[in-house]
Amino acid sequence: MHLVPAVAADALGPTYPIVEPDLLQDIRRSLQDKERSGKLALLQREAVARSEHAMRNPKPARDVVRTLTPRTFYFDPTVAVGQPITGPGGEILVQAGQRFNPLDEVALRQQLVFFDARDASQVALAAKVIADSRAPSKPILVNGDYLALQKRWQRQVFYDQSGSLVRKLGIRQVPAVVRQDGKRLRIEEILP
Protein backbone atom coordinates (compact mmCIF):
# COMPACT_ATOMS: atom_id res chain seq x y z
CA MET A 1 0.00 0.00 0.00
CA HIS A 2 1.40 3.39 -1.01
CA LEU A 3 0.68 6.50 0.93
CA VAL A 4 0.26 9.85 -0.77
CA PRO A 5 1.31 12.84 1.29
CA ALA A 6 -1.32 15.50 1.91
CA VAL A 7 -0.44 18.96 0.71
CA ALA A 8 -2.17 22.15 1.80
CA ALA A 9 -3.43 23.91 -1.28
CA ASP A 10 -3.45 27.67 -1.26
CA ALA A 11 -5.97 29.62 -3.28
CA LEU A 12 -4.98 29.48 -6.91
CA GLY A 13 -6.83 32.67 -7.76
CA PRO A 14 -9.61 34.92 -6.57
CA THR A 15 -12.85 33.24 -5.46
CA TYR A 16 -16.34 34.66 -5.85
CA PRO A 17 -19.58 33.79 -4.10
CA ILE A 18 -22.17 31.99 -6.24
CA VAL A 19 -25.03 34.37 -6.84
CA GLU A 20 -28.20 32.95 -8.40
CA PRO A 21 -31.62 34.48 -8.29
CA ASP A 22 -34.07 32.56 -6.11
CA LEU A 23 -36.52 31.09 -8.61
CA LEU A 24 -39.38 30.84 -6.11
CA GLN A 25 -38.93 34.48 -5.10
CA ASP A 26 -38.99 35.50 -8.76
CA ILE A 27 -42.23 33.55 -9.32
CA ARG A 28 -43.83 35.08 -6.20
CA ARG A 29 -42.75 38.56 -7.26
CA SER A 30 -44.15 38.02 -10.77
CA LEU A 31 -47.47 36.77 -9.37
CA GLN A 32 -47.69 39.71 -6.97
CA ASP A 33 -47.02 42.14 -9.84
CA LYS A 34 -49.74 40.48 -11.94
CA GLU A 35 -52.13 40.53 -8.99
CA ARG A 36 -51.54 44.26 -8.39
CA SER A 37 -52.02 45.08 -12.07
CA GLY A 38 -55.19 42.96 -12.36
CA LYS A 39 -53.61 40.71 -14.99
CA LEU A 40 -53.79 37.65 -12.70
CA ALA A 41 -57.57 38.02 -12.30
CA LEU A 42 -57.88 38.40 -16.09
CA LEU A 43 -55.83 35.23 -16.67
CA GLN A 44 -58.02 33.35 -14.18
CA ARG A 45 -61.25 34.53 -15.88
CA GLU A 46 -59.87 33.50 -19.28
CA ALA A 47 -58.94 30.04 -17.96
CA VAL A 48 -62.43 29.57 -16.47
CA ALA A 49 -64.04 30.72 -19.75
CA ARG A 50 -61.90 28.26 -21.77
CA SER A 51 -62.83 25.43 -19.40
CA GLU A 52 -66.54 26.25 -19.56
CA HIS A 53 -66.41 26.47 -23.37
CA ALA A 54 -64.65 23.08 -23.60
CA MET A 55 -67.20 21.56 -21.21
CA ARG A 56 -70.19 22.96 -23.14
CA ASN A 57 -68.68 22.13 -26.53
CA PRO A 58 -66.91 18.78 -26.31
CA LYS A 59 -65.19 17.43 -29.40
CA PRO A 60 -67.88 16.49 -31.92
CA ALA A 61 -68.23 13.19 -33.71
CA ARG A 62 -66.51 13.55 -37.07
CA ASP A 63 -67.89 12.21 -40.34
CA VAL A 64 -71.43 11.94 -38.97
CA VAL A 65 -74.04 13.81 -41.00
CA ARG A 66 -77.76 14.51 -40.84
CA THR A 67 -79.71 11.52 -42.17
CA LEU A 68 -80.43 11.91 -45.89
CA THR A 69 -81.14 8.28 -46.75
CA PRO A 70 -82.68 6.24 -43.92
CA ARG A 71 -81.13 2.85 -43.35
CA THR A 72 -81.39 -0.04 -40.92
CA PHE A 73 -78.47 -2.34 -40.20
CA TYR A 74 -77.21 -4.64 -37.48
CA PHE A 75 -74.11 -4.67 -35.31
CA ASP A 76 -72.83 -7.93 -33.86
CA PRO A 77 -70.87 -7.12 -30.67
CA THR A 78 -69.16 -10.54 -30.62
CA VAL A 79 -65.41 -10.32 -30.06
CA ALA A 80 -62.66 -12.93 -30.26
CA VAL A 81 -60.74 -12.78 -27.00
CA GLY A 82 -56.96 -12.51 -27.45
CA GLN A 83 -56.04 -13.16 -23.83
CA PRO A 84 -57.97 -14.92 -21.08
CA ILE A 85 -60.41 -12.72 -19.18
CA THR A 86 -60.25 -13.33 -15.45
CA GLY A 87 -62.60 -12.49 -12.62
CA PRO A 88 -61.67 -10.66 -9.43
CA GLY A 89 -60.57 -13.93 -7.79
CA GLY A 90 -58.33 -14.85 -10.72
CA GLU A 91 -60.76 -17.43 -12.12
CA ILE A 92 -60.85 -17.61 -15.92
CA LEU A 93 -64.16 -16.30 -17.22
CA VAL A 94 -63.37 -16.44 -20.95
CA GLN A 95 -60.56 -18.50 -22.53
CA ALA A 96 -58.12 -16.96 -25.01
CA GLY A 97 -59.37 -17.44 -28.57
CA GLN A 98 -62.97 -17.91 -27.45
CA ARG A 99 -65.65 -15.79 -29.12
CA PHE A 100 -67.71 -13.79 -26.67
CA ASN A 101 -70.92 -11.80 -27.14
CA PRO A 102 -71.59 -9.44 -24.21
CA LEU A 103 -75.33 -9.67 -24.98
CA ASP A 104 -75.19 -13.33 -23.86
CA GLU A 105 -74.52 -12.05 -20.35
CA VAL A 106 -76.02 -8.56 -20.15
CA ALA A 107 -79.01 -7.14 -22.00
CA LEU A 108 -79.12 -3.61 -23.39
CA ARG A 109 -82.05 -2.50 -21.26
CA GLN A 110 -82.52 0.86 -22.93
CA GLN A 111 -82.50 2.23 -26.42
CA LEU A 112 -79.71 4.62 -27.38
CA VAL A 113 -80.80 7.74 -29.27
CA PHE A 114 -77.95 9.52 -31.08
CA PHE A 115 -78.54 13.03 -32.46
CA ASP A 116 -77.05 16.48 -33.09
CA ALA A 117 -78.39 19.09 -30.65
CA ARG A 118 -77.51 21.94 -33.04
CA ASP A 119 -80.34 20.76 -35.32
CA ALA A 120 -83.77 21.64 -33.84
CA SER A 121 -85.55 19.00 -35.96
CA GLN A 122 -83.26 16.27 -34.60
CA VAL A 123 -83.83 17.45 -31.03
CA ALA A 124 -87.61 17.38 -31.60
CA LEU A 125 -87.48 13.90 -33.16
CA ALA A 126 -85.26 12.56 -30.36
CA ALA A 127 -87.73 13.92 -27.77
CA LYS A 128 -90.61 12.21 -29.63
CA VAL A 129 -88.75 8.88 -29.97
CA ILE A 130 -87.94 8.95 -26.26
CA ALA A 131 -91.50 9.92 -25.24
CA ASP A 132 -93.14 7.32 -27.52
CA SER A 133 -90.92 4.43 -26.46
CA ARG A 134 -92.00 1.92 -23.85
CA ALA A 135 -88.32 1.15 -23.22
CA PRO A 136 -86.11 3.50 -21.22
CA SER A 137 -83.96 5.71 -23.45
CA LYS A 138 -80.51 7.19 -23.24
CA PRO A 139 -80.13 10.42 -25.27
CA ILE A 140 -76.59 10.72 -26.65
CA LEU A 141 -75.37 13.81 -28.49
CA VAL A 142 -72.79 13.70 -31.25
CA ASN A 143 -72.62 17.50 -31.33
CA GLY A 144 -74.09 20.48 -29.53
CA ASP A 145 -74.43 21.81 -26.00
CA TYR A 146 -75.44 18.83 -23.86
CA LEU A 147 -75.60 20.91 -20.67
CA ALA A 148 -78.17 23.31 -22.13
CA LEU A 149 -80.27 20.40 -23.43
CA GLN A 150 -79.97 18.59 -20.12
CA LYS A 151 -81.27 21.69 -18.33
CA ARG A 152 -84.11 22.12 -20.84
CA TRP A 153 -85.17 18.47 -20.73
CA GLN A 154 -84.63 18.11 -16.98
CA ARG A 155 -82.92 14.76 -17.48
CA GLN A 156 -79.44 13.42 -18.02
CA VAL A 157 -78.09 13.78 -21.55
CA PHE A 158 -74.91 11.98 -22.60
CA TYR A 159 -72.23 12.97 -25.11
CA ASP A 160 -70.32 10.67 -27.45
CA GLN A 161 -66.84 12.15 -26.92
CA SER A 162 -65.08 12.41 -30.28
CA GLY A 163 -67.60 9.99 -31.80
CA SER A 164 -66.11 6.81 -30.33
CA LEU A 165 -69.50 5.05 -30.03
CA VAL A 166 -70.83 6.02 -33.46
CA ARG A 167 -67.54 4.87 -35.01
CA LYS A 168 -67.64 1.52 -33.19
CA LEU A 169 -71.30 0.94 -34.12
CA GLY A 170 -70.86 2.09 -37.74
CA ILE A 171 -73.33 4.98 -37.45
CA ARG A 172 -72.77 7.52 -40.25
CA GLN A 173 -76.03 9.51 -40.04
CA VAL A 174 -78.08 10.94 -37.19
CA PRO A 175 -80.60 10.79 -35.70
CA ALA A 176 -80.07 7.10 -35.05
CA VAL A 177 -81.75 4.71 -32.64
CA VAL A 178 -79.98 1.61 -31.30
CA ARG A 179 -81.96 -1.27 -29.77
CA GLN A 180 -81.11 -4.85 -28.87
CA ASP A 181 -82.52 -7.43 -31.29
CA GLY A 182 -81.63 -10.90 -30.05
CA LYS A 183 -77.85 -11.15 -29.85
CA ARG A 184 -77.28 -8.15 -32.14
CA LEU A 185 -77.94 -4.43 -32.05
CA ARG A 186 -80.44 -3.05 -34.55
CA ILE A 187 -79.45 0.43 -35.69
CA GLU A 188 -81.88 2.71 -37.50
CA GLU A 189 -80.66 5.95 -39.04
CA ILE A 190 -83.91 7.89 -39.42
CA LEU A 191 -85.01 11.10 -41.12
CA PRO A 192 -85.46 14.02 -38.72
Tell me what the structure shows:
This protein has 5 helices and 12 strands. It starts with 22 loop residues before the first helix and ends with a strand. The strands form 4 sheets. It has a 6-stranded mixed beta sheet with strand order 2-12-11-7-8-9, covered by helices on one side. The mean pLDDT is 89. A hairpin with a 2-residue loop joins strand 11 and strand 12. 17% of the residues are buried. By secondary structure, the chain is of the alpha/beta class. The longest helix is centred in the first third of the chain and has 18 residues. It folds into 2 domains: 34 residues; 125 residues, Glutaredoxin, CATH 3.40.30. It is flat, with a radius of gyration of 31 Å. This is IncF plasmid conjugative transfer pilus assembly protein TraW.
Keywords, separated by commas or semicolons:
192 residues, Glutaredoxin, six-stranded mixed beta sheet, 5 helices, 12 strands, TraW, IncF plasmid conjugative transfer pilus assembly protein TraW
